[in-house]
Amino acid sequence: TAVLAETTVITADRMIDVANGKVVKQAAVIVNDNIITASGRLKDLTVPNEATRIDLGNATLMPGLMDMHVHLTSDATRHGYKRLEVSLPRAAITGVKHAKATLDAGFTTVRNVGAPGFADVALRDAINAGDVVGPRMFVAGPSLGVTGGHCDSNLLPYEYDNYSEGVADGPWEVRKKVRRNIKYGATVIKFCATGGVLSKGTKVGAQQYTFEEMKALIDEAHLRGLTVATHAHGTNGIKAAIKAGVDSVEHVSLLDDEAIDLAKKNGTYFSMDIYVTEYILGEGEKAGILEESLNKERIVGKTQRENFEKAVKAGVNMVFGSDAGVYPHGDNPKQFARMVKFGMTPIQAIQAATINPARLLKQEATLGSLEKGKLADIVAVPGNPLDDMSLMEKVGFVMKDGQIVKQYAM
Ligand code: ARG
């Protein structure tokens, strides 16, 4: 005897059609097991009689949110030297809590762009096996970087001989690291193209890796069918990485017009974490962030927001990337209101967290919108976020892969 598929119809006062950039009123999404079979205006759809009905009332349905820059195994209350107290197994266990907080906030997919010890691979596998609750994860494993660069660990003096496992210098070393990351389960590659804010002794403006090394690294990843994300604050590093074919640039703080043109020409995505500056400058000192890092943040934070506005106006491909892990997991949605404050329309901000990341990850066939045939990753917020973007911080309904993981009265 055939087992009947379970059908659910979710209705709400409105839905965001991210593929067309429109709002649909009196909307419904029909889900069969874990697949969306129809969506649109309720009156235009045929709802099977036996379907389970979930009416969310004055709420807004949208695709599951996607954050392209998180570190689920990092703890926002431990920065600088406090990080040295955390063992790899302890970090992995912390990741379990953070995965749930992230999913509860409405993020059904994340790209984890750097984790020592392949803790992100372990977490992803545990989520996929149903052992723990969390978002769909695309994972980088250890980030690649030059000796002494932002992706190395530079806190201890030389006699400790301490370095991060993603350190690789020279075209063949970087190719080998890419291969090693893939061997142990990475599905994206992350590297550092410039110095950073939170690393000791690096300059945010200075390029790390030569063009030759970047080209080798990115070619190797692309050969194997993986996309590449690069950490880059400084203009030269940003431009070199774009010319070398990188898929997304993270942070993108110090831009010039040529960098914007290059990104547009190459279809490169910008993932600009414009909320985190508020946490770093507000809570950072208590959390152990070094004084030199606070000073660097005072330089890049404001400029990054101005450049976000410029990039949006110029029409660069934008994705939502928060750098949660630097700030508390679950607070990811706080960035939405800032994205609108700094130049996006509310629909653009929601597209940046749905359809655009699906394209960046080359997962548009299954993720990123509520269109027929896609996986049932669906969230809802109370009221209308197009009138008040802070409502994105109040996600009250979350379905991932057809399973309801959160349902509050809205
Ligand atoms: N992980 C990044 C770094 O250390 C955080 C940068 C945060 N600042 C910002 N304005 N986005 O460089």
CATH topology of the largest domain: TIM Barrel
Q: How many whole angstroms does the radius of gyration measure? A: 21 Å
Low-confidence stretches: none
CATH architecture of the largest domain: Alpha-Beta Barrel
Number of strands: 16
Tally of separate domains? 2
CATH superfamily of the largest domain: Metal-dependent hydrolases
Overall mean pLDDT stands at: 97
SSE run: EEEEEEHEHEHEHEHEHEHHEHHHEEE
Which cofactor or ligand species appear? arginine
The residue fraction in helices comes out at 25-40%
CATH C-level name of the largest domain: Alpha Beta
Largest sheet: 8 strands, mixed
Number of helices: 11
Overall geometric form: globular
Can I get a quick summary?
This protein is of the alpha/beta class. It has helices at 88-104, 119-128, 171-183, 211-223, 235-243, 257-266, 276-283, 291-314, 334-341, 346-352, 355-360, and strands spanning 7-17, 22-32, 35-41, 52-55, 59-63, 65-70, 107-112, 136-139, 188-192, 227-232, 248-251, 269-271, 317-319, 378-382, 397-400, 403-407.
